[in-house]
Amino acid sequence: MFAALSASPFVTAIVVAATETPAPEFDKDSVTPGAIGFAATAFVALMTVLLILDMNRRVRRTRYRAEVDAQLDAEEAAADGDAAANGGAAANGEAADDTSAHNDSSAAAANGSKSATPPHGESS
Q1: Distance between alpha carbon 40 and the CA centroid of its chain, in Å?
Q2: Where are the bilayer-spanning segments (predicted)?
Q3: What are phi and psi of 88, to 5 degrees?
Q4: Residue range of the domain that includes 45
Q5: pLDDT digits over 52-94, tens only?
Q6: Residue 13: inside a domain, yes or no?
Q7: Does some domain include residue 15?
Q8: Number of Cα atoms under 13 Å in the Cβ half of residue 104
Q9: Cβ contact 98:76 at 8 Å
């Protein structure tokens, strides 16, 4: 009866699985990712830094454009107030010209084109 069991492939598989496996040739605690792992980590870190710098630049540009638009609106309102106080037709014509210039620069900013003068701190 034991002879029949020892010839069975299932018993052979159990016996092989039950035997001890040899010790690995490397220490599992000292395995490192190597140069490829370092390069991948450095690449992700560098891309993150560049992404943050680009984001800061874009936020700063947007904030500056909002400040310039607010200043232009304030100057336009002051010019309209001066024109109404003076009651002169020439002042109204100048205010209309200023308004059209402001609208042109706002349209250019909305389209993403750069103006002739770059924002403060940036070079073209």
Answers
A1: 19
A2: 34-53
A3: -90, 145
A4: 33-115
A5: 999 999 999 999 999 999 999 999 999 888 887 776 555 455 5
A6: no
A7: no
A8: 8
A9: yes
**Per the structure, how many domains does the chain have?**
1
Relative orientation angle of helices 34-86 and 89-111, to the nearest 10 degrees: 170
- Supply 50's token pair: 């560049």
17 lies in some domain: no
Residue 10 lies in a domain: no
* Residue located via tokens 């490829």: 36
Count of beta carbons in the 10 Å neighbourhood of residue 11 = 13
Q: Give start and end residues of each alpha helix (H) in 19-120.
A: 34-86, 89-111
Q: Find, among 100, 49, 92, the residue nearest to 72 by Cα.
A: 100
| Rounded Cα distance, 104 and 75, in Å | 16
The CA-based angle 33-36-37, given to 5 degrees, is 45
Cα–Cα distance between 108 and 72 in angstroms, integer? 15
Single pTM value for the model = 0.41
- How far is 35 from 43, CA to CA, in rounded Å? 12
